[in-house]
Specification:
293 residues, Rossmann fold, 2 domains, three-stranded parallel β-sheet, binds NADPH dihydro-nicotinamide-adenine-dinucleotide phosphate
Length: 293
């Protein structure tokens, strides 16, 4: 693992996020099948979109397709861009009260006039498939969460799939967002890694990264993490996705990391398919907890 020299590169493994997502989705589909075979209705995710942003529309279609493929139902609620916060909160209270709905996801970003944090706090924590409610975040902090942010769950699945040891390892997380940086830091710490959280004010970020056995980049700055920031043999989880000249580019210089990292995730077919899969996992968990099955 640490015998790297420029003349003796490491054989970097590249995560096939699509294949791993298919495997996990197969397991979820079998669980749904057995529930339905024993007389229960399938779990149902409600997806709410405000406005008609084409990227958001395509994301929610992808999420609904993924639900259908594992035998789950999904219901979309499309609201015009002129929807007020009050109207959206009213819809959420209806969805919270609807016993036929197990998971609720409000697609972000929301129009400027609507507060994303008030919306997140209006979702019943028992149906919080995207794990954005403050109670869900608190449970993660306490180590008692069942519903966990989807991207961090995807990162753990990738590390586990590749047999990456976390206990006692140095993990460095770049980015401290509610949806990725903070939760993955907590999860890595719960798996007994020694975690350093970095952000835009971190001093000498390259030097901090060079200590990382596990490096998670969730920034949104294309190719910010250079080859010489990477410890030979490290597991590099690149969450960032930025469109550059019509192509999706990650936060890590993928080509530069190849031959140095032990494991790396590509920006296409990497963490993205796992994120959607974990939304299905959360919906199934929410269903099981609510229905006690
Ligand atoms: P945010 O955009 O909310 O925050 C970015 C974080 O990066 C902040 O904490 C910021 O620090 C930090 N940062 C910005 N510039 C630097 C810098 N130069 N050096 C160090 N840290 C810096 O993060 P998200 O988690 O929402 O998104 C991050 C990326 O991940 C985006 O590209 C997004 O598209 C992608 N993403 C991909 C997903 C997937 O499924 N593949 C899912 C979710 C996100 P500070 O706090 O100091 O401002």
């Amino acid at each position: 693992m640490s015998h790297y020299t420029p003349d003796n590169p490491i054989e970097t493994q590249v995560l096939d996020g699509q294949a791993l997502a298919q495997k996990i989705r197969g397991e979820l589909a079998s669980e749904v099948d057995s529930l339905v075979a024993s007389g229960h209705r399938p779990p149902c995710l409600s997806v709410v979109l405000v406005g008609d942003d084409p990227a958001s529309r395509s994301y929610i279609k992808g999420k609904q397709r993924a639900c259908g493929r594992v035998g789950m139902d999904s219901i979309e609620r499309l609201l015009p861009a002129t929807t007020s916060e009050k109207e959206l909160l009213h819809l959420l209270s209806e969805l919270n009260a609807d016993d036929g709905i197990d998971g609720i996801l409000v697609q972000l970003p929301l129009p400027e006039a609507i507060s994303a944090s008030r919306v997140a706090a209006a979702i019943d924590p028992a149906k919080d498939a995207d794990a954005l409610h403050p109670i869900t975040a608190g449970r993660l902090l306490a180590g008692t969460a069942e519903l966990i942010s989807c991207t961090p769950l995807g990162i753990l699945a990738a590390l586990d799939h590749h047999g990456i040891q976390m206990e006692g390892q140095n993990a460095v997380v770049i980015g401290r967002s509610q949806i990725v940086g903070k939760p993955i830091s907590l999860l890595l710490q719960q798996r007994n890694a020694t975690v350093t959280m970095c952000h835009s004010r971190t001093r000498d970020l390259p030097a901090v990264c060079r200590e990382a056995d596990i490096l998670v980049a969730a920034v949104g700055q294309p190719r910010m993490v250079q080859a010489d920031w990477i410890k030979p043999g490290a597991a590099v989880m690149d969450v960032g996705v930025t469109e550059v000249d019509g192509k999706l580019v990650g936060d890590v210089d993928f080509e530069g990391a190849d031959g140095i990292a032990g494991l790396i995730t590509p920006s296409r077919r990497g963490i993205g398919p796992l994120t959607i899969t974990m939304l299905l996992r959360n919906t199934l968990h929410a269903y099981r907890s609510r229905k006690n099955v």
